[in-house]
Amino acid sequence: MSEHRYRLAVIIGSTREGRFAPVIANWFTRHTAAHPHIDIDVIDLDTVRPYELRPGSEDHASFAKRVDTADAFVVITPEYNHSFPAPLKHAIDLLHAPWQAKPVGFVSYGGVSGGLRAIEQLRLVFAELHATTVRETVSFPLAGNLFDDAGRLHDPDPAARAADALLNQLTWWAVALREARAARPYGA
To answer: Closest Cα to residue 7, out of 63, 70, 66, 68?
Structure first.
């Protein structure tokens, strides 16, 4: 499995006060830790503060390097007003080439739709950056009702199955696209 080892950047897209994103991110990273071929790098946009990043700055270079060294991404996003958060869009738009020819998966949460409308819009954004989005997703409708006070799912099985399907697709694409970029650098 060592040849299938890859670096997964988990991007926490919400920066709102009182956000639920850390609960979702903690669950997902705990679940992903059971996949020993995946090295996880959690990029919390509340810490990165994308609106403050300026090209040429040390913080911008650090963010760019973390995105560049990732073989795949999982974007954790809420759905706000039928879309995704503005800081997430800004963070994505700060870079171009580091996203190219890499797979992106999504974990969403929100109201009744579970954030699926945010995912559909993010697919369009990543397509413009020449990234490949995977079909499988993890979605939490009315997420606050699904977790206990300690951040554990009341019924973990459906989400665990969805996360495994997502991670299996990401693994295939991450390894295949890394090998393809090594054999022939991607140029858009």
So the answer is: 70
Alpha-carbon distances, residue 104 vs 40, 73, 85, 170 (angstroms):
14, 5, 17, 7
pLDDT tens-digit profile of 114-127? 999 999 999 999 99
Report the C-alpha gap between 79 and 111 in whole angstroms: 8
pLDDT digits (tens, 9 = 90+) for 81-122: 999 999 999 999 999 999 999 999 999 999 999 999 999 999
Q: Would the pTM count as exceeding 0.90?
A: yes
In whole angstroms, what is the distance from residue 11 CA to residue 29 CA? Answer: 11
Q: Please enumerate in sequence order all residues whose Cβ is within 8 A of that of 170, keeping only pairs 6 or more positions apart, or say none.
A: 8, 72, 74, 103, 105, 134
Dig out the tokens for 14 from the structure. 């919400």
**Domains of the chain (ranges plus CATH)?**
2-183 (3.40.50.360)
